[in-house]
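Supplementary Methods S3. Complex input for the adenosine-5'-diphosphate-bound model.
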Amino acid sequence: MRLTKEPFYLPVGREIQLFEAAAAGRLPVMLKGPTGCGKTRFLEHMACRLGRPLVTVACHEDLTTADLVGRYLLKGDETVWVDGPLTTAVKRGAICYLDEVVEARKDTVVVIHPLTDDRRILPLEKKGEIIKAPDEFMLVVSYNPGYQTILKDLKQSTKQRFVALEFDFPPPDFEAEIVCREAGVDAGTAAKLVAVAGKMRALKNRGLEEGVSTRLVIYAAILVKKGVDLNLAIQTAMIKPVTDDQVIQKSLEEIAATLL
Ligand code: ADP
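Predicted complex, serialized as structure tokens:
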């Protein structure tokens, strides 16, 4: 995917300069942070800024090496090699984004190792071929440390192949500006939704597994923009998606009510 229009991204710290330095130094990058806090948007913005195509792979536990690298397929009575997204990205000098890399199987993750050190190669074992990555190729993974358990975590031997940029929910003023821009609501509405989100995030680990994402705050704002009452928008977009526990839902509604 090559984006023609640079997606809006509001920098929160020095992430743009750091990413540019990593790209110039041909270093692989890990974007760390909770879901829905702007990692993907940041990368889309950076790909556009750097003028490189972006190839995104959503990782899951059934993702095999062949899914990433490619495989021989039968077409008519011929077997033809079909590149996987990683191979395509290497050949095109693209940014390859492995979203939620920890979800991928351990034996699958290993295939990226030779691309993440100074060899910068991708061995296509089934084809008996080795591809050398051009300077423009960049590997980026996202990783949510909040989800990890002892059983499901990246190995140190994988982690220590990336420079890490840490993301979190943007500070309130920034988040309100993002919500205004993305949903087209007025500053007052955005500030209220962000204040509710802030209170809800303070409950993380006290009943809530993960703080409400910026994405959901934007969804609530979009509902408001479409005429839904503020309270109902908060319930529908910011409370119900994050917890199934009705007691917690009720107390979140009460917290929200005190701020509106
Ligand atoms: P994830 O961290 O899960 O990849 P996304 O990048 O999809 O999250 O972020 C969710 C939404 O939040 C984006 O679509 C975008 O609208 C918004 N967003 C979050 N942070 C920013 C930011 N700094 N600048 C612009 N938009 C942002």
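Residues 8-10, 12, 33, 35-41, 170, 178, 182, 214-215, 218 surround adenosine-5'-diphosphate (CB under 6 Å). The CA atoms of residues 69 and 138 lie 15 Å apart.
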